[in-house]
TrEMBL record:
<feature type="binding site">
    <location>
        <begin position="206"/>
        <end position="208"/>
    </location>
    <ligand>
        <name>dihydroxyacetone phosphate</name>
    </ligand>
</feature>
<feature type="binding site">
    <location>
        <position position="132"/>
    </location>
    <ligand>
        <name>Zn(2+) 2</name>
    </ligand>
</feature>
<keyword id="KW-0479">Metal-binding</keyword>
<feature type="binding site">
    <location>
        <position position="81"/>
    </location>
    <ligand>
        <name>Zn(2+) 1</name>
    </ligand>
</feature>
<feature type="binding site">
    <location>
        <position position="102"/>
    </location>
    <ligand>
        <name>Zn(2+) 2</name>
    </ligand>
</feature>
<feature type="active site" description="Proton donor">
    <location>
        <position position="80"/>
    </location>
</feature>
<dbReference type="Pfam" id="PF01116">
    <property type="entry name" value="F_bP_aldolase"/>
</dbReference>
<dbReference type="InterPro" id="IPR000771">
    <property type="entry name" value="FBA_II"/>
</dbReference>
<dbReference type="InterPro" id="IPR013785">
    <property type="entry name" value="Aldolase_TIM"/>
</dbReference>
<feature type="binding site">
    <location>
        <begin position="227"/>
        <end position="230"/>
    </location>
    <ligand>
        <name>dihydroxyacetone phosphate</name>
    </ligand>
</feature>
<keyword id="KW-0456">Lyase</keyword>
<dbReference type="GO" id="GO:0005975">
    <property type="term" value="P:carbohydrate metabolic process"/>
</dbReference>
<feature type="binding site">
    <location>
        <position position="205"/>
    </location>
    <ligand>
        <name>Zn(2+) 1</name>
    </ligand>
</feature>
<dbReference type="GO" id="GO:0004332">
    <property type="term" value="F:fructose-bisphosphate aldolase activity"/>
</dbReference>
<dbReference type="GO" id="GO:0008270">
    <property type="term" value="F:zinc ion binding"/>
</dbReference>
<keyword id="KW-0862">Zinc</keyword>
<dbReference type="InterPro" id="IPR050246">
    <property type="entry name" value="Class_II_FBP_aldolase"/>
</dbReference>
Length: 284
């Protein structure tokens, strides 16, 4: 396992990005890791609080250690959007090397106070912390809200960054979790302003559904970590559906064939993101 700061330093300095992909079972975990090896790309594997609770941190971490044993590309294991301090503690103890403490629903002062505590806790484990002061619009795995996120002034964001010393920052720039119902209007300049004032890698949330041009523009401004969750869920579910419809027509019921077909679609999706974001070939 590679420290998140190490995985993101090259991308941030050279203006490419590493996909941070939310997995939810053994098949998706194995497939995105396989794509990283196949594309010689660094990778951030993300787990939601919901996934941690449904599979259990013990089993999830055992899967991770088994599947990454001897892996030859830089990989990190990140706990995504976690408002629950006890889950952060559990995952840090278990071996996650990066966490997003999501205190965006709290007043900024309280968010800052608690984030300082989480950063100190994570440092004791050699782990990284991603922070945010604004909710990202949309609900993902039961966390979030569909009400548009309120943006804080740049000065507030900079005070948060300087006070907490988080390793990665996730600003609200008009992005949203889930599928976009219409093309999003993004405040890309905000990324540039943040990075110019305080050079920290920016995490782009709500990546599923942005155009290639939007990705390239935001990455060129300092978005070094790009989160993908909805696109993988949709690929996984639609791949299952297509295979099962064919199986029903043929009356052939072979689970390993289903797993192979779905795995291939997940590998292809992850690989296409690595190539788009510019991380493919960077781990060679």
């Amino acid at each position: 396992m590679t420290p998140l700061t190490e995985i993101l330093s090259g991308p941030f300095n050279e203006r490419y990005a590493v996909p941070a992909i939310n997995v939810f079972n053994d098949l998706t975990l194995e497939a995105v890791l396989a794509a990283a090896v196949e594309n010689a790309s660094p990778l951030i594997v993300q787990t939601s609080v919901k996934t941690v609770k449904s599979i259990g941190s013990d089993v999830l971490y055992a899967m991770w250690t088994a599947m990454t044993a001897g892996i030859e590309v830089p990989v990190a294991l990140h706990l995504d959007h976690c408002p629950e301090r006890e889950v952060i503690t559990e995952c840090l103890r278990r071996g996650w090397n990066s966490v997003l403490f999501d205190a965006s629903k709290l007043p900024v002062e309280e968010n800052m106070r608690q984030t300082v505590e989480v950063v100190a806790e994570a440092r004791a484990y050699g782990a990284a912390v991603e922070g945010e002061i604004e909710s990202i619009t949309g609900v993902e795995d039961g966390i979030g809200s569909d009400i548009a996120a309120e943006q804080q002034d740049l000065a507030v964001a900079l005070e948060f960054l300087r006070t907490t010393q988080v390793d990665v920052f996730a600003p609200a720039i008009g992005n949203a979790h889930g599928s976009y119902k219409q093309a999003p209007v993004l405040d890309a300049q905000r990324v540039s302003d943040l990075v110019a004032a305080y050079p920290v890698p920016i995490a782009l949330h709500g990546g599923s559904g942005l155009s290639d041009e939007q990705f390239r523009d935001l990455i060129s401004r300092g978005c070094a970590k790009v989160n993908i969750s909805t696109a993988l869920k949709e690929t996984f579910m639609k791949s299952n559906l297509a295979f099962l419809e064919t199986a029903a027509e043929r009356q052939k019921w072979d689970p390993p064939s289903l797993f192979r077909a779905v795995r291939q679609d997940v590998v292809e999706l992850a690989g296409s993101l690595m190539r788009l974001f510019g991380s493919a070939g960077r781990a060679g």
